[in-house]
Amino acid sequence: xxxxxxxxxxxxxxxxxxxxxxxxxxxxxxxxxxxxxxxxxxxxxxxxxxxxxxxxxxxxxxxxxxxxxxxxxxxxxxxxxxxxxxxxxxxxxxxxxxxxxxxxxxxxxxxxxxxxxxxxxxxxxxxxxxxxxxxxxxxxxxxxxxxxxxxxxxxxxxxxxxxxxxxxxxxxxxxxxxxxxxxxxxxxxxxxxxxxxxxxxxxxxxxxxxxxxxxxxxxxxxxxxxxxxxxxxxxxxxxxxxxxxxxxxxxxxxxxxxxxxxxxxxxxxxxxxxxxxxxxxxxxxxxxxxxxxxxxxxxxxxxxxxxxxxxxxxxxxxxxxxxxxxxxxxxxxxxxxxxxxxxxxxxxxxxxxxxxxxxxxxxxxxxxxxxxxxxxxxxxxxxxxxxxxxxxxxxxxxxxxxxxxxxxxxxxxxx
Amino acid sequence: xxxxxxxxxxxxxxxxxxxxxxxxxxxxxxxxxxxxxxxxxxxxxxxxxxxxxxxxxxxxxxxxxxxxxxxxxxxxxxxxxxxxxxxxxxxxxxxxxxxxxxxxxxxxxxxxxxxxxxxxxxxxxxxxxxxxxxxxxxxxxxxxxxxxxxxxxxxxxxxxxxxxxxxxxxxxxxxxxxxxxxxxxxxxxxxxxxxxxxxxxxxxxxxxxxxxxxxxxxxxxxxxxxxxxxxxxxxxxxxxxxxxxxxxxxxx
Lengths: 415, 252
Ligand SMILES: Nc1ncnc2c1ncn2[C@@H]1O[C@H](COP(=O)(O)OP(=O)(O)OP(=O)(O)O)[C@@H](O)[C@H]1O
Ligand SMILES: [Mg+2]
Known about the structure:
The complex is a heterodimer of chains A (415) and B (252).
Chain A: H1 3-6, H2 16-32, E1 56-58, E2 81-86, E3 89-90, E4 101-105, H3 106-112, H4 129-136, E5 142-146, E6 156-161, E7 167-177, E8 182-190, E9 198-207, E10 212-220, E11 226-235, E12 240-247, E13 252-261, E14 267-276, E15 281-290, E16 296-305, E17 310-319, E18 326-336, E19 342-351, E20 356-365, H5 369-377, H6 382-398, H7 404-414
Parallel strand pairs in A: 1-7, 2-6, 5-7, 6-8, 7-9, 8-10, 9-11, 10-12, 11-13, 12-14, 13-15, 14-16, 15-17, 16-18, 17-19, 18-20
Antiparallel strand pairs in A: 2-3, 4-5
Chain B: E1 4-15, E2 18-29, E3 33-37, H1 44-52, E4 58-66, E5 69-70, H2 76-81, E6 84-87, E7 94-98, H3 99-113, H4 121-134, H5 139-143, E8 145-146, H6 152-166, E9 170-174, H7 182-195, E10 201-205, H8 209-214, E11 219-224, E12 227-232, H9 234-243
Parallel strand pairs in B: 3-10, 3-11, 6-9, 9-10
Antiparallel strand pairs in B: 1-2, 1-4, 4-5, 7-8, 11-12
Bound molecules: adenosine-5'-triphosphate and magnesium ion.
């Protein structure tokens, strides 16, 4: 993938700040390039950039052949507000209006200048080459404002459907949770065929004082896909963010979260489960910055690797000198079920305050033969016993989901 | 078909290079109750695991027929579905799996093996309630994760509940009485007695006569140093209770 070839006319090139962002992103990419096997942050799950060379940049032309782009709508067992993406395009016309929530396609928001104070302001773009790539083609996505004190009665379900092979989709969403608001967002990536494509997503999320957001990301991408997602979250006083990332075995996926707990009593929970079969690769990387006193974070990630699957968990908790009375916890437990699968786990703590409670634990092992035997003596076949134990392992994370219908749906979808 | 439900002939088994079962023979007819007593470490639980099919043990010689079929050729789940049940001395906890779900799966695995349709949730719940009440197992316990944080006595009652749901033709109870209070002991004994009839058999491993006073054995075997050193009737258990095993152990 050669960068000069990538340049393509985009909406908003004539808006100075948008053009400026794109230019800067281009310069960064040109200067630092894409991560190689030597890049520390990417050394375990190396991304072979040449795998994208056959892909075209997907801009605002909607390529999907569907007569009606809602034909892939899946019935859901819970009521929700729906936002639709198809092949990387945000389809505002097919999306619901949500009381108390302002949603605008990013293209329009770029023109109106509303995005200026937020876009790429929450993370250092030099460190995120794929976010730079995303910015180079900044166009698709939405800006969402969950208005002050709005308490949503049902979750916002965002469907990202992929109908075709051959595209690199860059999507950038700004989600602003105003003070006192409460909402849940479900991002569902799905593809019914073995399409070859890349989803490159950046979500910039800001939680103002006392805002609450539950953020589910369910990746059910194809075996040939690439999925790169950066969630950059800034939290103000007493806000709370709870994330669940569910990664069903797909192609290559990197789910990265950068959390900044900027004011006191901000709380964050980052949970995840993954399965890697075949030659699927899953990377979950988190960086949690405790920047104020009395902040709290907790991470629980559980996974299963079989066949030639490869999984990476990199979690770093940073505690700033003034972030006293802070708690940061991190746990990663994985089942490594074949000799050819691989799991790399790298928990890190970087603590500059003294009055803190921090913990991290990591384990990687096989299923317990005593449990398997016990189940077999009760008539369970070996396969059933294994599957039940695998589910039980992953269920510990799913059990933390408060919404009973979402929990059941995700269990059904995942297993 | 065969006169014996279980027929163990000259069995030798080892684990980690150590021979634990040394030339053991035992025959159990349909309808019989056998008790197996012996000092700690004699190999009683090992025998129960070998019968249930645990793979840690290497069978170096001998044979086991179960209802005329080669037991050693069967997987643990085939043994279970064919009617062999082991109530374990140390039942295993399975976090993340609720007791009720586990029991349902187990019952349905057996039904599937017998060509019967699955019980649906309502049918199963009815059956489970009915059986668990007899053992005074509260439904709260059935909602919890299997054996996680269960007391010793609760675990044992749950083993007997599984026995009553699966209705085995041969039940091996390995210290089903250990850790039980007197009421629980009576409930377990009643539960076992209700299931016992002329078509099924029991092999009761115990250190105490109390259970044998409630479930009356036809034979009592003394098992020491890897094989049966003496077989008698119930009075043998009473003698062991009085004198211990010293008369049956080789001077070592
Ligand atoms: N996996 C193993 N590795 C090594 N030794 C073992 C193993 N399993 C059992 N043993 C040994 O085999 C012997 C028999 O153990 P077993 O549990 O069968 O005794 P038991 O008769 O049931 O004793 P108890 O009355 O205490 O329950 C013991 O010495 C035990 O330590
Ligand atoms: Mg024992």
